[in-house]
Amino acid sequence: MKISQKTYYAALLMVIAMMASCKGGFSVNISPDSIILVQGQTTSVMVNIEPSGGFKGQVEVTVSGLPQGVTAGLLTITPGNVTGTLTLSAESSAATGMFGLTVQAAGSGTAATASLALSVVTEESRLAAFPGAEGFGAYATGGRGGRVIYVTTLN
User: Fold this and answer.
1) What distance in Å separates the CA atoms of residue 80 and residue 125, rounded to the nearest whole number?
2) pLDDT for 53
3) Residues 6 or more apart from 121 whose CB is under 8 A from it?
4) Is 60 exceeded by the pLDDT of residue 144?
5) Residue 13: pLDDT above 90?
């Protein structure tokens, strides 16, 4: 069966049009997905973009659902990069409580979202990971109510 030149070019134009409309996309993940923010302090989360379909565009990251007195810094993930740090800051009078935030990533005509659980607390109400905890990990989450496993040998 012989294909005419006209049919060949028509098929070629259809393939080119389909490729042009397929610009790829991405998904967004954040880590950690649950944070505690003390009034008057700042914390951050890592934002990871997972490109698909050849996506290589710039991505702007914003946050919605922020409580009164809490702000999120501007984050732009430039082409060729897949991660960025999103900073959240609380004024000393920020509203306390648990809040469900939406992290929105948008770029090149596509968008994705991820959920972030935010707990804003006062300095006085912060629980230590365990009684007497000090230093960097003193207020790490997950320490209370667990169990202690003693390692007595490495064999």
Assistant:
1) 42
2) 86
3) 36, 37, 38, 39, 96
4) no
5) no
- Global pTM value: 0.70
Res 22: pLDDT: 52
Those residues whose C-beta lies under 8 Å from the C-beta of residue 2, and which sit 6 or more positions away, are: none
CA atoms within 13 A on the CB side of 133: 15
pLDDT value of position 59 = 95
Q: Would you call the peptide bond into 79 cis, given omega within 30 degrees of 0 as the criterion?
A: no
What is the secondary structure of 42-86 as a DSSP string?
EEEEEEEEEEETT----EEEEEE-PPTTEEE--EEE-TT--EEEE
Task: Select from 20, 50, 51, 46 the least CA-distant residue to 32.
Answer: 46
If pLDDT is split at 50, 70 and 90, which confidence band does 76 have? very high
Greatest alpha-carbon pair distance for the chain in Å reads: 84
DSSP 114-154: EEEEEEEE-TTTPPPSSTT--STTTT-TT-TT---------
What is the edge-to-edge ordering of all strands in the sheet holding 83-90? 25-31, 42-52, 83-90, 70-72
